[in-house]
Design a protein that fits this description.
about 80 residues; mainly alpha; Helix Hairpins; 4 helices
């Protein structure tokens, strides 16, 4: 699955509820998931790490959808003009 397809999937599955929840709550959930990922990296199994990576990606896609931005466009920056 391409990143744009994943973002569209997250919109179709969770978009309405995510918009009702709002961006501040979405950012809070994203931060919580990043914390859970950090813990899984330190002490978790590869399966737990993969699970948390997926959660972070899903919440990031939700935030991008609420902002009206494309994760593909964000990723393309690293192809076209990577920060040094």
């Amino acid at each position: 699955m391409h990143i744009a397809q994943f973002q569209e999937l997250m919109e179709s599955l969770y978009g309405e509820g995510d918009r009702e929840r709002g961006m501040p709550s979405t950012v809070a959930w994203l931060c919580e998931e990043v914390g859970e990922l950090a813990q899984a990296v330190r002490k978790g199994t590869p399966e737990q790490q993969l699970h948390e990576l997926g959660d972070v990606l899903a919440w990031l896609a939700s935030l991008a959808n609420q902002l009206g931005l494309s994760l593909q466009d964000a990723a393309d920056r690293y192809v076209e003009d990577p920060p040094m």
